[in-house]
Amino acid sequence: MWNVDEKGFNPDPLPRKVIASKSSRAVNQQHRRSHDHITANVCVNALGNHLPPQLVFNRKTLSTQLASNGPPGAIYSTSANGSMDAELFVHWFQKLFLPGTSREQPQLVLMDNHSSHLSLELIDCARNSNVIFLALPSKTTHVLQPLDRTVFSSLASHHQQVSTAARLLKPDHRL
Known about the structure:
- By secondary structure, this protein is of the alpha/beta class.
- About 35% of the residues lie in helices and about 20% in strands.
């Protein structure tokens, strides 16, 4: 049994806290927000194994510098807004999921029912590859999605801490 989900990140998120004097009534954040967006498509199984991620950037072309220090075996993609779409999801399925899993037994994949996961091409490919997709009900994934409940909540917290620390060390540096 596998679980696939994606998590979007702003490489330079807004800080959670602002330091101000106690007498201040309104405090504005002084921060340039990046328009960059990265989506990580992650897949893990019930035994704790994981496949390399797919990282989607909001760029027209992909710089080799972005992939040079990334996770081993990851695939790098682009889209207009840095989010997953049906074509990119099929690409992930064919290039990472199928080669990384066994065809000897049926493979069950839990996922949300986002429109990027639903295409005839994906359904045909999954059916021919002995893969069964099970979409979680709408508006329940925050409770039922294993990756949201474990990995992504911790990852988001650490991302925020590292970004805040980096901003304190180099306030004018863009992450």
